Amino acid sequence: MIERNFKIWRGNSKGGDFVNYKISIDEGMVVLDALKLIQADQANDLGLRWNCKAGKCGSCSMEINGKPKLACMDRVTDYKEDSQITVRPVKTFPVIKDLVTDLSWNYEQNKRIPPFKPKPRENGAKYRMQQEDVDRVQEFRKCIECYLCQNVCHILRDQEKKNKFVGPRFMIRLASLEMHPLDTEDRIPAIKNEYGSGYCNITKCCTEVCPESIKITDNGIIPIKERVVDRFYDPVLKLFRVFSGSKK
Amino acid sequence: MNNNSIGFTYRADNWWLQPVAVLVGLGAFIAYSTWAGMQGAYYYYEPYLSPFYSPLVYVKTGIPGGAPLSHSLLGAWPAWWPNFFLLPSSPAVLILIFPLSFRLTCYYYRKAYYRAFTWSPPACAVGAFPQKNYKGETGLLTFQNFHRYALYTAIIFLFILYYDAAQAFFYKGGFGAGIGTLVLLINPTMLALYTLGCHSFRHLIGGQTDCFSCSKTKFGLWKKVTYLNERHQLFAWLSLFWVGFTDFYIRMVSMGIIKDYNTWGI
Ligand code: SF4
Ligand code: SF4
Ligand code: FES
Ligand code: FES
């Protein structure tokens, strides 16, 4: 029989503390299994959010030994036998109960983004897209909205700038719309002024924690920052626009 | 539980290893390059020229291990040069600003030094340096947006450093090669692998378009640059190490401390 020690944060919006649990585990168990076992045997009122147990719904985000992770994708046997496994709710969003947090701020950000606005069809013909054009935006559509990237981003987590920056998850949503060959909406000014692209200092923690391995910074945020440079900072391009009369 | 102090974390792994490694690596390079750039001597050993000193805008003659006047772009070192200790009459101080500004504004190095030097944040899910009003790259750091201009100069430097590598095949007009030639050839190659993987370059070469299928050439180039871009961190360090090593090698040979093995028998 294998045993593991867990230290789980218990509490609500008013406060709480870590509580220790010891359980015996089976080979192949993930942290979510262990938490459910603790819930069944020792703490029936343990607040826990999960759904698919397959790393695809994004519900079970938490911080395990300080690392933002999906509990359903983290094997218990990866932790040494004598070690203690610390489990806490994500830091950036307010706790509701135990490991469950209120993520509604994220949904508010999503609403601020102007949706996909395709160019009109030519004579009612079908839209046609080539694979190479689809691929780039498709990467961002793998997002399962676990908000681990939002949680780890120091701008939201430590600097308390939720009013200035929408966070990496929405930067890649903006990127997927901006890079879409059929989209006609211009979001670049808002990306700079309202969504706060300049706040990101490309330290890449979002990329480090993304369970879908989306290259958030390299493929999403940096290309978007470069488009902001084109529009707002590059003096040569600015001059070029003055003479060519183009707005973008 | 929500402790906001600097460095606070529940992480149990050695998260501090990476910032410490960057601190030591970049710190060592900055220390060596500043020292070497201020020497103004032993940067040349025919036909090798240290990359810290190239191109030679002005040359001071009669210096041990200095280049002959004929290698200078604008001639002899100007007499009006203030020449106090921060601005020695060393050809390196005239040009180091270009590679420095390129690396300083590089997206990879930004990540590295924001983590290791300014702790914003030191590592993921580790308490950042507390700032009352964090501005990221919108305040004082807005200059990071001009990285592409530093890139343009870096591309010019690639040509200059390849020219130096080509020169390193000719000693007093005679074709040949030495260890120094090889060192000088690897240097711009490493720099090219780093420079051509630049995020701004990736944007300018094709990334700005939404329609890859509209131009096969653009898409092809973008894919090649993407290959290098995915290895940008690796080439950033390799090229940094190698450019420092190149100066070190030529300096050692020029000072007579080590011998350069070559076909000319010098
Ligand atoms: S790279 Fe930018 S968006 Fe991602 S975690 Fe860092 S600061 Fe936040
Ligand atoms: S980008 Fe990745 S980390 Fe962020 S919400 Fe989507 S899947 Fe989660
Ligand atoms: S339970 Fe769905 S991602 Fe973990
Ligand atoms: S991003 Fe590193 S050189 Fe441009």
Quickly list its features.
heterodimer; A: 248 residues; alpha+beta; Ubiquitin-like (UB roll); Fumarate Reductase Iron-sulfur Protein, Chain B, domain 2; 2 domains; 5-stranded mixed beta sheet; two-stranded antiparallel sheet; 10 helices; 16% strand; B: 266 residues; mainly alpha; two-stranded antiparallel ribbon; binds iron/sulfur cluster; binds FE2/S2 (inorganic) cluster
Characterise the protein shown here.
- Chain A has 248 residues and is an alpha+beta fold.
- Chain A is built from ten helices and seven strands.
- Chain A folds into two domains: 2-101, Ubiquitin-like (UB roll) (Roll); 104-244, Fumarate Reductase Iron-sulfur Protein, Chain B, domain 2.
- In chain A, α3 packs antiparallel against α6 and α6 (168-178) crosses α9 (216-232).
- The longest helix of chain A has 17 residues, at 216-232.
- The mean pLDDT of chain A is 95.
- With 266 residues, chain B is mainly alpha-helical.
- Chain B has helices at 17-39, 91-95, 97-105, 107-116, 147-167, 179-195, 199-207, 216-229, 232-254, and strands at residues 44-45, 48-49, 170-171, 174-175.
- In chain B, α5 packs antiparallel against α6 (179-195), α6 packs antiparallel against α9 (232-254) and α7 (199-207) packs antiparallel against α8 (216-229).
- Chain B is globular, with a radius of gyration of 21 Å.
- At the A-B interface, α3, α5, α8 and α9 of A face α4 and α7 of B.
- The complex binds iron/sulfur cluster (2 copies) and FE2/S2 (inorganic) cluster (2 copies).
- One iron/sulfur cluster is lined by residues 58, 143-149, 169, 172, 209-212, 214, 216 of chain A.
